[in-house]
Specification:
By secondary structure, the protein is α+β, with helices and mostly antiparallel strands. It has eight helices and six strands. It has two domains: 160 residues, GAF domain (Beta-Lactamase), CATH 3.30.450.40; 48 residues, Orthogonal Bundle (Arc Repressor Mutant, subunit A).
C-alpha cells in the first residue's frame, strides 16, 4: 500500500461516518468528501488549465450513497477553481436549491435520472484552516433543520479528521527527536536505548494538506462516538457548560439545544460536580 493509501486507511472510519451522517441528515443520495493535498495528477487532470499553481488541490477520498467510486471526472478540484474548489478559499458553505446545472458539480443527465433537487457543500474547518469539503446531493430541498444537522456533522467530522492529523504530526516529531537522541548517543559512544516501538507517521502540520506523501504507518483511531464526545465536551468547557443561548455550546456546534442535550445523554456527558 502506498503512503498516501495508508493515510486514507487511517482516516477511513471517520470519513465513512461523516458521509453516512451527511446522507442521513438530508435525504441525501450521494455524499462526498474532498481533502486538501498536493497536486498528484496534474498531467492528466481535466481541470489543469483552471489550476493557478498546480501544487495543491482537493482530492476526492470518500463517496457514499449511489456510488462509492472516487475516480470519476470530479476526483480533483484545484483550490480556487469551480464551486467546490473555491470553498477552501472563502470558508463559506454553498447551498443550491435550484439551477444545479449551472454549478457544474455533476453530469446533468445524472442529476435528472436520480431526481436531485439540491446540493450543499460545506467547509471542513479545523482551527483556522479549511482541510477539505463535505458535499451532499439531495432529493429534498434542504430546509433549515436539515442544514443544521448537516452543519453539525461537518463540524464534528472536521474535528475528528483534524485530531487524526494532529496526532500523526506529533508522532512524526517524536520520531524525529528520538532519531536525534539516538544519533547523539552513538556519537558519544553510548549503547542505544531499548526501542519503545515504532510510532505512526504523520502529515505536515500547518499546511492544510490532509493527504501528504510523507505519511507512514496507520495509527489506531478512536470510535466516532468517542470523537463526538470529546468535541462536545470541549465546546461545553469553552462555554462554561452553557448549552443554549447565543453563547452556548449548541450554537457553537451548529446544533439545536434539544439535539445537543439528547447527544449528551446518549454519550453519557454530565457537567462535573462543583
Amino acid at each position: 500500500m502506498s503512503q498516501t493509501g495508508q493515510v486514507l486507511q487511517t482516516l477511513r472510519p471517520v470519513l465513512a461516518s461523516l458521509t453516512d451522517a451527511g446522507l442521513a441528515a438530508c435525504q441525501g443520495v450521494l455524499a462526498r468528501i474532498w481533502l486538501a493535498g498536493p497536486g498528484d495528477q496534474c498531467a492528466s487532470c481535466a481541470l489543469r488549465p483552471e489550476c493557478p499553481s498546480q501544487t495543491t488541490c482537493l482530492h476526492l477520498v470518500m463517496s457514499a450513497g449511489l456510488t462509492s467510486r472516487v475516480d470519476g471526472p470530479f476526483r480533483r478540484f484545484p483550490i480556487g477553481a469551480r464551486t467546490v474548489g473555491r470553498i477552501p478559499i472563502t470558508h463559506e458553505p454553498l447551498i443550491a436549491r435550484d439551477d444545479l446545472l449551472r454549478l457544474g458539480v455533476a453530469d446533468p443527465a445524472w442529476l435528472t435520472l436520480h431526481g436531485v433537487r439540491s446540493f450543499a457543500a460545506l467547509p471542513l474547518e479545523h482551527g483556522v484552516r479549511c482541510i477539505g469539503v463535505l458535499a451532499v446531493f439531495s432529493r429534498g430541498t434542504l430546509p433549515g433543520a436539515q442544514m443544521r444537522q448537516l452543519t453539525a456533522a461537518a463540524h464534528l467530522g472536521a474535528e475528528a479528521i483534524g485530531n487524526v492529523e494532529a496526532y500523526r504530526a506529533m508522532a512524526v516529531e517524536r520520531n524525529r527527536l528520538a532519531a536525534k537522541h539516538a544519533r547523539l548517543r552513538s556519537e558519544l559512544g553510548l549503547l542505544p536505548e531499548r526501542a519503545a516501538g515504532p510510532a505512526p507517521g504523520g502529515l505536515v502540520a500547518g499546511t492544510g494538506a490532509m493527504i501528504h506523501p510523507d505519511a507512514t504507518a496507520a495509527a489506531p483511531l478512536p470510535s466516532f462516538a468517542e470523537i463526538q464526545r470529546a468535541a462536545i465536551v470541549r465546546a461545553l468547557e469553552r462555554t462554561g457548560w452553557r448549552v443554549s443561548g447565543p453563547q452556548g455550546a449548541a450554537a457553537a456546534l451548529g446544533l439545536k439545544p434539544t439535539t445537543l442535550e439528547s447527544k449528551m445523554k446518549k454519550l453519557g456527558i454530565r457537567r462535573p460536580a462543583r
